[in-house]
Specification:
single chain, about 325 residues, mainly alpha, globular
Length: about 325
């Protein structure tokens, strides 16, 4: 059996691979709306997303601490590096599957579900940190309806306050505002999503006995930020198409409203040290602005596919996490 250092090194590599795929998978969160409205060209949008994702990833660590200490208990019977490696493998596989089908699935749901599934198979329900896991699940499930409400509200306020938004001058202003909002969107994505990888690597360090606390080392922050930014640079174009044009027809006003609503929800969650699905927040805010524009503006068939992926991700990733754990740990 490999020694602890080898397992730890493998776990860190798997975590950075997951982070890379996460950035690749979630590029749509930052650029889909600005591309759909023409506020940014593809090259500029990707470069902006890379830079702001990297900056956001280095700014906060609160969510990382929540993920590190809130899902499984490293001091209990679930303190097993195989659990962490199995979860990372399962979450990465699920991300690639949802990317292949063009579905904006949740990397956060996938990672949390896979950790829970692997820990349960390894040690039963006591392998999960009950209170912390419950708080994380609440954040994951309540953030999409909150984003929908925020998108609906912000879009309505803009529509009522600027009835002449269709003038060319007003459109130019909205496009400029959307560029700022897109930068904020990418920054917010970095503040939340990269921290999940930081948290898992920190959990692996604690599990392996290499540190005693869940404080995130500087090298972990830098490596996670770089992996996310590199993944973002490639762009998951299948999902960008689904988010940018598949949910509703975006205009400069609704695109700005969706970005602003998403930024408010994601940064609010980050400030509260809560991991949320940035993918589902963005999709929900776009659905909200579409619903606020009147009947027939939302493509509910696309939304239903996104909701189905949302509902399937936790149980599917938990099952995958358990499967990969069994493969790594061997027969009972």
């Amino acid at each position: 059996m490999p020694d602890v250092d080898t397992l730890l090194f493998t776990a860190v590599l798997l975590a950075l691979a997951f982070d890379f795929v996460n950035g690749f998978h979630d590029t749509a969160n930052a650029v889909a709306t600005s591309l759909a409205t023409g506020a940014l060209n593809p090259r500029t949008a990707i470069l902006l997303a890379v830079a702001m994702n990297f900056l956001g990833a280095l700014t906060f660590t609160g969510v990382a601490g929540t993920v590190a200490g809130g899902v499984i208990n490293p001091a209990g019977p679930a303190g097993d590096l195989n659990i962490i490696m199995a979860a990372l493998m399962a979450a990465t596989v699920w991300n690639l599957l949802t990317w292949f089908f063009g579905l904006p699935g949740s990397s956060s749901h996938a990672l949390i579900g896979a950790l829970a599934g692997a820990a349960c198979l390894a040690a039963g329900p006591q392998g999960i940190s009950g209170r912390g896991f419950g708080i994380i699940l609440q954040a994951l499930f309540f953030s999409p309806p909150l984003a929908f409400a925020a998108g609906f509200t912000v879009s309505g306020v803009l529509r009522l306050s600027r009835p002449g938004y269709r003038t060319s001058r007003s459109t130019r202003r909205l496009l400029a505002l959307q560029r700022l909002a897109a930068a904020g969107q990418a920054f917010a994505h970095g503040t939340n999503d990269a921290q999940k990888t930081m948290g898992v690597i920190t959990l692996a360090l604690v599990t392996a006995g290499r540190q005693a606390t869940f404080d995130v080392p500087l090298w972990v922050r830098l490596a996670s930020a770089l992996a996310l930014a590199l993944g973002t640079s490639l762009g998951g174009w299948r999902i960008i198409k689904t988010v940018g044009t598949g949910i509703t027809r975006l205009t400069p006003r609704t695109g700005f409203a969706a970005d602003l609503a998403s930024v408010l929800v994601i940064l609010g969650a980050t400030a509260c040290r809560l991991p949320v699905s940035t993918t589902h927040v963005v999709s929900s805010s776009i659905t909200g602005v579409g619903a606020g524009g009147g009947r027939g503006l939302v493509r509910w068939a696309t939304v239903s596919r996104i909701v189905l992926a949302w509902l399937l991700t936790l149980p599917a990733s938990a099952a995958l996490g358990a499967l990969f754990y069994r493969l790594l740990a061997g027969p009972v």
